[in-house]
Amino acid sequence: MSGAVLEVESLTRKFGAVVANDGIGLRVHAGEVVGLLGHNGAGKTTLVSQVVGLLRPHGGSIAVAGADAVADPATARRCVALQPQSQAPLDGLTPKTAIEIAGRLRGMSRADARSAARALADELDIGEWFNRQATPGGGLSGGVRRLTAFAMAAVAPVPLIVLDEPTNDVDAGRRRRLWRTVRRLADDGAGVLLVTHNVAEAERVVDSLVVLDHGRVVAAGSPSHLRGSGAEDLQLEISLHSDHADPSESLPEAPIAITRRVRSGRRMLLTLAARDAEAAVAWATALRSSDQIEGYALAPATLEDAYLAATGVASTNTAGGAADV
Ligand SMILES: Nc1ncnc2c1ncn2[C@@H]1O[C@H](COP(=O)(O)OP(=O)(O)OP(=O)(O)O)[C@@H](O)[C@H]1O
């Protein structure tokens, strides 16, 4: 893997008393997809706005393809393509025109922009609407507008592509196509910073993840590193009755070693080793039979419980040691 196309060091940005970014450090290398995860208000958009030169940091540094994005935002901006979280203003344009213009603005010839736009429309399966004009509040659906904005960011080769929630409003089939295209862009040599809430989808496409919470990096690494696994780890998801105010007190002790325990609303996510699968099922079945829980499901451990634990949704995080339940 070649050099870093994004290097962020000790980045700090405040809004009055709110520290939106608090000493953030992260790197994206050419050929790599890095996911930036975090709840609402974690500081993701603030970070992206500084990377693309829309907001000045109060401390720290940002280098995009070697250019100092704070001292020389214009040069840095030429090296980064952004798909913003808000919908692109497309009214009066067709997807074809919008994508071609984006390519031309990045220095592509007319012919190259035209063929790259067509290829992306095929890749994302939006050919049906390629020549349909967007009108104020109509013409194109939210999903097609989102895919068009993605294609505008992806049309020309740039060192760094920043995608802020690119799959909002996009249907399941086209979301899969979009993730394939993201992977292709990285395989073609771009570094991709992918901002998302969708932990499960991010897991399928990213090489590494940075988790933000209250403006700070609270976890970073590859999906398997963050899962803390154990590909053999399992996750027991227990659905609690709505009247169980504090289930950790009312549930009987588990006859299994729980390595991580997260509560999210009425869901308890318990991580355990595969060798305890039989005991876990017997235990959960007994709880359900005696109506102490609503139901349960056992599946391979995912990144989601690790993410919830890192961002403090957990009622308990006992990674590495057994916990009683
Ligand atoms: N222009 C602003 N003025 C005042 N406060 C702001 C401004 N922009 C962001 N903030 C605050 O900074 C913090 C981080 O916001 P930011 O938009 O970066 O979070 P986010 O992770 O992108 O959230 P979301 O997932 O909802 O888009 C929040 O507390 C937010 O209220």
TrEMBL record:
Residue span, ABC transporter domain: 6-239
GO molecular function: ATP binding
A Pfam family hit: ABC_tran
PROSITE patterns: ABC_TRANSPORTER_2
Gene3D superfamilies: P-loop containing nucleotide triphosphate hydrolases (3.40.50.300)
Membrane topology per record: Peripheral membrane protein
SMART domains recorded: AAA
Localization: Cell membrane
Key words, A-Z: Antibiotic resistance, ATP-binding, Nucleotide-binding, Transport
Presence of keyword ATP-binding: yes
Name the UniProt record assigns to this protein: ABC transporter ATP-binding protein
